[in-house]
């Protein structure tokens, strides 16, 4: 007699570990953002011209920038605008996208055509370009780019919601509820939306990472959050001169923070999407 | 008065006519078998009966009332449907009890629904243990019982069973057929069995209508149609039913 | 040709084996039916024959195909086994064919044969050469199943494994496919289905499975004339029949056990009308093709 045991794939195991790590990173980020004043060792805006471009260690764990501000404290405070901006983008684009996508899917016909075409129209403009245009018109700041990016992200969410909703509507329980006399709005809100919510959550999580990257990019270009505020993108912008002087810290520290967050949100989003697909 | 009068029903999608001049009647407490293969138009007919789609022509009367002209909720109390797929016909997030309560709430406002939910479950052979279960915790047969209970909750005059036993195991299928027969004997409800299975039709339907390419090609009392079929297609269907060759 | 000996398959997080001590043979030029309801373990058995058990499944016993044990094969041997010895036809032909490729490409690329051979095969299964140029969505389910059958025949398999090959098809198409399978005369066929009547139309011998075990196995005619296991009898009685118009078939009470239930003794005992205390004491073995303690006695009782 012989026994065949098929061992679980290693990939799955690795995936689980990676997801846990990503979740820990996100949890730490959120905690840091909330508790920034408590956990930051120094005032992020305190200039100390006697200790400019200090290396890591000593009084400043991650060193200082060209104005002698504590990099660790700045990157910790930067988590606030770093997370708040994408949160705004994702919240607005998800609400708009779900509205548009569900309406298009449920009504079909000319409503669907109209909404789908308008979404494609927005789709055709690169989000960053749109944001730059808005900044050129209304001046830099956090709100303008955030709202513009939210509008730019809406078609992504809308198209996805429309597709998922149409597939879900093909399932007989939707027809059963219509036959039972429930109205369209009630079915959409009480049955359709909750059942596709996991997919939307996964997509929004992935979008969060991209929005964070886009907003940091705008800040880096000087179009978003303005220096001297502690913002990751703005920090890299300010740090450029330091690189020329041979100090990598002021660019590396916020850079690593951005990369870590984007990758973490991406991993969690993808694993959520995988989990939904497996069901 | 008949429970169901269908006349001249037609529905086209673009140039394709899915249902063409379909008509039949079901007397009070009667049972009609609507037989056809895929593409015969039997499922489109079901959607037209339920008012889920508007016919291009023709009318559906339940107890003399046109389903196209009454309010959504009133229509629901005239005619209900149970689908084939016991996995997809329930909202996966709702427990059995919540599922039934929601329907009762919409149609019969009352301070509490516990008693009625209990009655409905008992009627379909389920108990309090199943009441708190989610659809995925139930077997296919149990889910189909829940779908039947949900349809009965609004006390419809006509119940459409769209391949309602096709996906079930034979031993469970016989249980559900027995349950449906018991319900018909106890309640004032008539059935439209939509199925491809002539043997099932033979044991539950008084009348049969055979559909092909969107039209009714033959109809009449079940025994007559199944023992002396007039149309070639009915004969082909009968010959195709697998039978143990002794 | 195929001989399964004491096959037991356990799935993770279950209380009892999904296939429990199953023994089965398919002889040269024999069509054997494997009949059971959902959860009976019939599909798992057919997958085991192909060496396609789900991950984490644990299998013991032997599956001997022409003298070689499938469970002991390495990857290369399994590939050889799946192309040359055993071919499978599935329930849903649309899932078996890439929707983007032409039928001809599907046949010539996946099975590696030339166009002439492909055209010849299509003719064998009742299609025309012109169908080579069709894409899957242009063909009906029945035609696609014919294409899948043609592909299965390409490797000249010794054993054809048909897992519910007509369940997704219309009644008239089912009759055509069954007629085709009968005409083909592959050296051996294992026909897996939930439909006893359908099995009767094509099989020489039938195994009736329940909860992972064989309840009864006899030549088809005998089994239908005189079912000896209460489960087989119940299943036959529960099947709606055209020659019994207007009467409801008697149902088997209860429902098939799931994999989380541990079943001492005969798995059918909880639903059996003839159950005795001794039925749950030990697992009845197959005696005279029937796994029932009371088979003799019940047989004598009948007129």
Automatic annotation (TrEMBL), chain A:
Coiled coil: none annotated. GO terms for cellular component: plasma membrane. It is found in: Cell membrane. CDD domains: TM_PBP2. Keywords: Cell membrane, Membrane, Transmembrane, Transmembrane helix, Transport. Residues 79-269 form the ABC transmembrane type-1 domain. The chain crosses the membrane at residues 21-40, 87-109, 121-139, 174-193, 205-223, 243-269. It comes from the Bacteria. Its main location: membrane. One of its GO terms (biological process) is transmembrane transport. InterPro entries: BP-dependent_transpt_permease (IPR050366), MetI-like (IPR000515), MetI-like_sf (IPR035906), OppC_N (IPR025966). Gene3D superfamilies: MetI-like. It is a multi-pass membrane protein. Pfam families: BPD_transp_1, OppC_N. Belongs to the binding-protein-dependent transport system permease family. This is Peptide/nickel transport system permease protein. The lineage of its organism: Bacteria, Bacillati, Actinomycetota, Actinomycetes, Streptosporangiales.
UniProtKB/TrEMBL annotation, chain B:
InterPro entries: AAA+_ATPase, ABC_transp_ATP-bind, ABC_transporter-like_ATP-bd, ABC_transporter-like_CS, Oligopep_ABC_C, P-loop_NTPase. Gene3D superfamilies: P-loop containing nucleotide triphosphate hydrolases (3.40.50.300). Keywords: ATP-binding, Nucleotide-binding, Transport. It holds the Pfam family oligo_HPY. Signal peptide: none annotated. This is ABC-type glutathione transport system ATPase component. GO terms for biological process: peptide transport; transmembrane transport. The keyword Aminoacyl-tRNA synthetase does not apply. SUPFAM superfamilies: P-loop containing nucleoside triphosphate hydrolases. CDD domains: ABC_NikE_OppD_transporters. Belongs to the ABC transporter superfamily. GO terms for molecular function: ATP binding; ATP hydrolysis activity. The keyword ATP-binding applies. It comes from Nonomuraea soli.
TrEMBL record, chain C:
Residues 2-236 form the ABC transporter domain. InterPro entries: AAA+_ATPase (IPR003593), ABC_Ni/Peptide_Import (IPR050388), ABC_transporter-like_ATP-bd (IPR003439), ABC_transporter-like_CS (IPR017871), Oligopep_ABC_C (IPR013563), P-loop_NTPase (IPR027417). Gene3D superfamilies: P-loop containing nucleotide triphosphate hydrolases (3.40.50.300). It is a peripheral membrane protein. Keywords: ATP-binding, Cell membrane, Membrane, Nucleotide-binding, Transport. Belongs to the ABC transporter superfamily. This is Oligopeptide/dipeptide ABC transporter ATP-binding protein. GO terms for biological process: peptide transport. One of its GO terms (cellular component) is plasma membrane. CDD domains: ABC_NikE_OppD_transporters (cd03257). Pfam families: ABC_tran, oligo_HPY.
